[in-house]
């Protein structure tokens, strides 16, 4: 069941709210970007996500080269504290327009909610987001 959560960057400039269902899992990916940032994400549909404050402080990053088409994914960071609270994306065969929320940036999620959510491992390194990589110990 989806629940409303509020989140923010470290300095509190960027604040957002979103509807998430942790029963759908928290995803860990081994692509070069997620692996370096240790991103653990949960997905919200675009109409279930809102930036409450600090939009002007957000900086967008897109890897070059990227397997994502231009405009299909943007990673957002607070320009003050550097925290990446979420990414915005589009993938027709997945959810359409979505936000990948960094669960570590949620302010009102309990340890129990995070601890009981299933973990889904994505093999982003090989563009296989439906199957885990052979070794998940480092993720």
What does this structure look like?
The structure is a single chain. This protein is mostly beta strands and 139 residues long. Helix content is 9%, strand content 39%. It contains two helices and ten strands, in the order E-E-E-H-E-E-E-E-E-E-H-E. The chain has helices spanning 32-37, 111-116; strands at residues 3-8, 15-20, 26-29, 40-45, 49-53, 58-61, 73-78, 86-91, 96-102, 119-122. The protein has a seven-stranded mixed beta sheet, with no helix packed on it. A hairpin with a 7-residue loop joins strand 7 (73-78) and strand 8 (86-91). 27% of the residues are buried.
What's the short story on this structure?
By secondary structure, the chain is mostly beta strands. The chain is 9% helix and 39% strand.
List the topology elements.
Layout: E1 3-8, E2 15-20, E3 26-29, H1 32-37, E4 40-45, E5 49-53, E6 58-61, E7 73-78, E8 86-91, E9 96-102, H2 111-116, E10 119-122
Parallel strand pairs: 3-10
Antiparallel strand pairs: 1-2, 2-5, 3-4, 4-9, 6-7, 7-8, 8-9
Order of helices and strands: EEEHEEEEEEHE
Strand arrangement, major sheet: 6-7-8-9-4-3-10
Oligomer state equals single chain
- Average predicted local confidence, pLDDT: 92
Number of helices: 2
Helix content: under 10%
Q: Rg, please?
A: 14 Å
Percent of sequence in beta strands: 35-45%
End-to-end separation in angstroms reads: 26 Å
Estimated structural class: mainly beta
Q: The biggest beta sheet, please?
A: 7 strands, mixed
Low-pLDDT sequence parts: none
Instruction: Identify the overall geometry.
Output: globular
